[in-house]
Amino acid sequence: MIDFGELTALAAREGRERIGVGVVVRDASGRILLLRRTPHDSLPGLWEYPGGAREAGEDVEKGAARELAEETGLAGLPLEYVHHLDFTNQSGRQVRQFVFTTVAPDGTPVVLSPDHDAHLWADVDALPTTSEGQREVIEWLVRRLAIPGWRPVGGYITTIARPTAYGSFLVTDPQGRILGMRSTINPEVWNFPGGNVEHGATPFSTALIEAVEELGLDLAAENPEVIAQRRLVAVIHEQAGTSYPVPVCGYVFDGGILTPEQQERIRLDPTEHTEWRFESAHDWRSLMDPPRYQRLLQVLRAHRSGTPLYVERPAPPADDFEGVLVLVTDARGRLLMHHRDQAQGIAWPGHWTPIGGWREGRETDEETATREVWEEAGITVTGLRPVPGPQHDLVHPLTRVLHGVWDGPESDLRLGDEGLAVRMVPLDEVPLLKVPPYMQHYLALLAAAADRTAGGTA
After folding, report:
1. What is the torsional sign of CA 449, 453, 454, 456?
2. What per-residue confidence (pLDDT) applies to 458?
3. Inter-axis angle of helices 60-72 and 4-13, to 10 degrees?
4. DSSP class of residue 333?
5. The pairing of beta strand 232-238 with beta strand 382-386
6. pTM for this prediction
7. Exposure on the CB side of residue 101, measured as CA atoms within 13 A
8. Cis peptide bond prior to 349, omega within 30° of 0
9. Do the beta carbons of residue 251 and residue 168 sit within 8 Å?
10. DSSP letters of 346-411?
């Protein structure tokens, strides 16, 4: 639907003092209906398409339908917005006329108002005396209609997806945890500060206004340097679903970091949210449904990349992952294991696990796996491929599990910035370590894969 309220506001900003409406009526042959002004009119004898001034408070499209009915008796015809015409009226006022078009069935009677004394159906190359502006509009429309498949914009936009839009902020604390707010309407939902874009607003202005209303904080004043950059983190396109049956286009901006002192001044609007908290990416998993958690991971990946990312939900199959778990073995049948930090907010603190981590930027799963193994163990793996078999329930569906091979000396292993140790562990000794419950599942899959490989080469 066209927002004529916004278009009339734009006209006022551009110096237009009056709003007019007009309708170019065509018949089946493409001829144009023109009306002749009466001799007592201010412009006697001038031919024109139906139109006039919009009445105070009147909807623009309804005003066009009213003028058409009053001047020709034609009513109930579907109108499509076409173009606009700017001109100066007889009183010296600057007018913007919104022009519509419609098709009248051949033989439809025309009933003139007292302002006109004749009508005709004219070919575009034989128009009678009319204003230059109206002639230009008519000729412009006829030229466009001659293009195969072209349709006036007012009709065309009814045939394409018109997503709603929202603007929001990604806000973190000094530890890198992410701010979420629990919805009052649906307590199972946690939101970023932000909201849906209303008529005349932009995604960024919406995010700013909504943050003030929802948090009681003006982020432009709290984090002026960050907000002034208007840094776009991600654009997220979400397909229509049963719960929200239209597409949605979301714009997520960097809201900066809130210090403990700033957090103390958060004042929620209780009609919208009941509580707020900062949680790590890992800990948000238990608080969000899978689609919202996927969106969070995608936004965080975009934020880490430093370059705005366009992402889709649901994601294309090749792009539908946000992390990896890498099972690296050597010729001696050992598995590379990583002793994780004893820290809050991470998966399996203090456990021995295979190498793993989040995806960065536009990496493929193999690129993510190669980078993570290098960063955490200082080695380069080869032969990366998906681990055949079902995913364990404790491994997130957005995590790809890959198997790689390494044949270097164990002395080449180098612990990266995370964790307590890395080492190659014989497969039968892995269960003796403090490991997550999913390890038995993947050890069995590795053994099965090894048996198949041995059988194929025998």
Report:
1. positive
2. 36
3. 90
4. S
5. unpaired
6. 0.84
7. 24
8. no
9. yes
10. SSSTT-EE-EEEE--TT--HHHHHHHHHHHHHS---EEEEEPPSPPPTTS-TTEEEEEEE--S-GG
Nearest to 194 by CA among 295, 84, 72, 58: 295
C-alpha distance across the termini of the chain, in Å? 68
Task: Report the candidate in 105, 104, 95 with the shortest Cα–Cα distance to residue 52.
Answer: 95
Contact 369, 384 (CB under 8 A): yes
Written as one letter, the residue type at 318 is A
Decide: 299 and 281 in contact? Cβ < 8 Å: no
The neighbour count for residue 28, using CB atoms within 10 Å, is 10
Do the beta carbons of residue 369 and residue 404 sit within 8 Å? yes
- The vertex-351 CA angle with 328 and 452, nearest 5°, equals 30
Give the Cα separation of 346 and 280 in Å (integer).
8
Mean pLDDT by 10 residues, the chain (458 residues): 89 95 96 95 91 94 97 96 93 94 94 95 94 94 94 91 94 97 96 94 97 97 97 95 89 98 97 97 94 93 94 88 96 96 95 97 96 97 92 94 94 96 96 97 88 52
- Structure-token match 């979301």, residue found: 250
Question: DSSP assignment, residue 113?
Answer: -
The identity of residue 282, as a single letter, is H
